[in-house]
Every structure is written in structure tokens, then in C-alpha cells.
Amino acid sequence: MKILIVNTSDIQGGAARAAYRLHKALLAEGVDSQMLVQSKSSDDFTVHRPETKFQKAMGKIRPTLDSLPVLRYKDRTKTLFSPSWVPFSGLVEKINALNPDVVHLHWIAGGMVRTEDLAKINAPIVWSLHDNWAFTGGCHIMWDCTRYIQSCGECPRLASKQEQDLSRKVWQRKNKTFRKIPSLKIIGLSSWLTDCARKSSLFKDTEVICLPNPINTKSYSPFEQSYARTLLNLPLGKKIIAFGAMSATSDINKGFQYLSNALELLSTDYELVVFGSSEPKKSQGFKQKAHYLGHLHDDISLRVLYSAADVMVVPSLQENLSNAIMESLACGTPVVGFAIGGNEDLIEHQKTGYLAKPFDIEDLAHGINWILNHDNPSVLAIAAREKVIVEFDSKVVAMKYIELYQTM
């Protein structure tokens, strides 16, 4: 069986890392898996990318070109909106030339492919949804908007008051295209996103399955905390709170402001570690001492970071199936997050972490305190890791995907 995994990039970004992990897990099970990307950062020979200098150059500017129709909405939010209109990517031609038995799409925005071209793929398609984009009129993070259940329009992300706005036009293009795809199965990576996809007007008549991302629980496993802190130059005798993500402090969806406010309610004896962001020029005014580790790109560094912390905080406004939560739990570090999105698939309240009431700063602070002052932290650590081993380990999840591919 020949599987082709398609994602905008191979290892840069959460969706990329999740897709690449699945790719490696399939290879480990003897599956002929390859990956096709617009932007390649690894040196993995099983990952294909544009070949010519022109194609590589176009790959870099396609995200900018794709965003042009959005610019006329001056009051739009800063969250990503993808029309996916830019033609001539050559993606479908490359896919069909590789001639896979199944094409497994992941995050394909950023100008990687024009929506209409998906109907030209010859092989059956499996599509893992890493955010809301596939079933909306262009937004990736819908927050509390439910217009995707009808046909979008009057898009709050665009600050639009028009029914026939860009979101409605993108929805119409998707609706027309998806109906032409003869064999399509949708994967919601979390229970929450699976439910959203099933409710959506675009996928209500399409089979939607809930299957998670995998994680290598050998690469992500507990590391002696004192050694981890020594490696990262962190204090040995302090309770440490970790927070991190791509653009950790600047992405509004990551909820950094909620953490900042919660820290005001916590002891100055705690210390904060931020990764995914460098120290800002202007102090952010925390009561607690803060350590900024910048961007950590490899599994070894992340494993050490999670193991150095006593608690990981993920205060996102919307999450699907968070890599950060899964990674932290696999390393035996409990997690505090809001009870939103896919967080409940990972965090078992007061067992593997703490689910705070959505956007309640006091409860977020209470959850952090609850973990940091737990009578028996090893109980939380063991439960956290066991949760990931049983439900999300690479081998366990890979076998479920293989079974799915065999039905296509």
C-alpha cells in the first residue's frame, strides 16, 4: 500500500509535526509512505518538495498571493483566513505522477493548492482536519461563530456585514468542488472537531471519523528533572510553570494574556518558562521571574523542557488536539488548560491535569496552584503518561490509520 501524506510543510508548525509523525509511524510499520510539501526544512529523502528554483521561489510567495483578497477587509481580525485561490501550483500533477493508493491531506493552506484542484486528484482522499478551515468559508479559527453550519457569509473574522462576502464565495467554491470528489473521508483529530465537521454544511453528507495524531512515546518520555533544569540553567528549588507555542506571546489564540492575568494571582515563589518566543525588549511585568528559551525545534530539547517543568499551561482560546499538551503529558508533566475544543480528549480533570472553566482567570490560577501543591505529584505524572501511551502512542495510532486506508 502506497500512502502519500500532503502538508504545506514537513516539520515547521504544529500540523506539520503531527503529519510528519504519522508519516514516520507508518514507515515504522512497513507502510510505503511518502510526504509531499510546499516548503521542506528536513533532509528526509522520503519528503518531496518543488524541484526547480522557480517552483521553490513561488512556494515562498504563494502565501502572500493567497492573502490578497482578504486585504480589502480592513477591520478583520488578525487570525488567518485562506481563500486558496492561487492557481498553477503543480501539486495535483505531482500527486498523480507519484500514483499513490491513498492521498492523505493535512494542512494544505498557505497558497499550496487551489480548492478546485482537489477534485483532480486521481486517488481516494483521506483528510485530517487540524483546524476549522476545510469546512468554513476561509477562517482557520472560528471561535464561537457557527455560520459554517449554513453557508458562511457575514463573516465575523472578516468583520463583514455582507451575506455575499469572501467567506460565502469561498464556501460556494468548496461546496462545488467537494461534491466532485468521488472518494473522500474526513478525520477529526479530536472529538470536538469531529462533531463540528459532522454539523457543517460542507461535510454533513461525508463520512467523518475521529482519529488522533500519534506521538512517539519513546522520544517523549520523562527525563530526570534535576538534570533537565541543569541543562536549561533553571533553578532546582523552585516550582516552574511552562508555557509555549509557535509565536507563543503574539498569537492571540494562544491565550498568553489569560496566563499573564492568572500569574497575578499566584505566588512570587513560582517561576515561569516561556518557549516559542524570545524575551521581549520591554518587560511584560510578571510578578514571577521569567525565563525565555526562544524557539525549540527538536524533540530532545522539548522533552528536556517539559521534564524541567512542574506544570504546563495551555490557555488557548481554541484547540483541536494540542501537540504541546500531548507532548507534556507523555513526559509526565500535567497540564492546565481551559475546558474547550479538544482539550478534554487529553486532559482528564484532576487526574492528568486540570480543566479550568473557559476563560475564567481565577479558575486557571486555581488549577495551576492545585497541581503545584498536589500531595502526590507522582500520581499525576504516572496518569499523564499512561493516558498518552494507551491512546496516542505511534504504533497504536498507526495501526488504526492502516485499517482506515485499507477501506478506501
From TrEMBL:
Residues 13-217 form the Glycosyltransferase subfamily 4-like N-terminal domain. InterPro entries: Glyco_trans_4-like_N (IPR028098). This is Glycosyl group 1 family protein. It comes from Shewanella decolorationis S12.
